[in-house]
């Protein structure tokens, strides 16, 4: 009788647990570059539930990076998250980079700080690679349409230097009452490439 209960319990547990199907960052990178990706997606990857950094490509970005640009001082902390989901109900988990940013003006005053925020509140997260470049997304002052893609790339000849560039989204609804200085608004991140040094 004990054996029947044990076997029944094991079978129930096995059936109730969905097996994790692992894919790689490289598979999803290749998928995003397919000519028919926007129309068809990637049917061959639809059963994957976890996108894994099997070659540890994300590790090169992990750490604290500092640099100066346009009179501002930047400190960026990048962390690798393994098997990460934004919400427990998400069906797909990723190995990804989540970032935190501290920006000071030329006088040393803090103008932006997400260092102590939770992962979901930093508004700076990674997607995947496109060649050597890791693609991320950043949302700063959303009322002034400050959101966009961030590209980070380790310099091939120096693993302690990283290039960062920001491409601001131009789509969205601007509320002039919440962003009265939009015509002169300067984004937090530089549009031109900035070099950051690993600490």
TrEMBL record:
It comes from the Bacteria. Residues 1-19 form the signal peptide. Residues 1-143 form the DUF6705 domain. It holds the Pfam family DUF6705. Keywords: Signal. This is DUF6705 domain-containing protein. The lineage of its organism: Bacteria, Pseudomonadati, Bacteroidota, Flavobacteriia, Flavobacteriales.
């Amino acid at each position: 009788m004990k054996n029947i209960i044990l076997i029944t319990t094991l079978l129930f547990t096995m059936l109730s647990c969905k097996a994790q199907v692992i894919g790689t960052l490289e598979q999803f990178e290749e998928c995003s570059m397919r000519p028919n990706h926007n129309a068809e997606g990637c049917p061959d990857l639809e059963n994957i539930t976890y996108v894994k950094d099997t070659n540890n490509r994300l590790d090169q970005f992990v750490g604290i990076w500092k640099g100066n640009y346009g009179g501002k001082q930047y400190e960026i902390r990048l962390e690798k998250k393994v098997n990460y989901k934004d919400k427990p109900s998400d069906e797909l988990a990723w190995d990804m980079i989540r970032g935190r940013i501290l920006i000071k003006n030329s006088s040393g005053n803090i103008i932006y700080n997400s260092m102590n925020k939770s992962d979901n509140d930093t508004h700076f997260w990674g997607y995947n690679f496109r060649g050597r470049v890791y693609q991320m997304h950043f949302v700063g002052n959303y009322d002034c349409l400050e959101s966009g893609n961030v590209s980070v790339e380790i310099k091939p000849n120096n693993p302690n230097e990283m290039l960062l560039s920001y491409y601001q989204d131009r789509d969205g609804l601007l509320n002039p009452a919440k962003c009265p200085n939009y015509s002169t608004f300067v984004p937090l991140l530089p549009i031109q490439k900035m070099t950051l040094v690993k600490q």
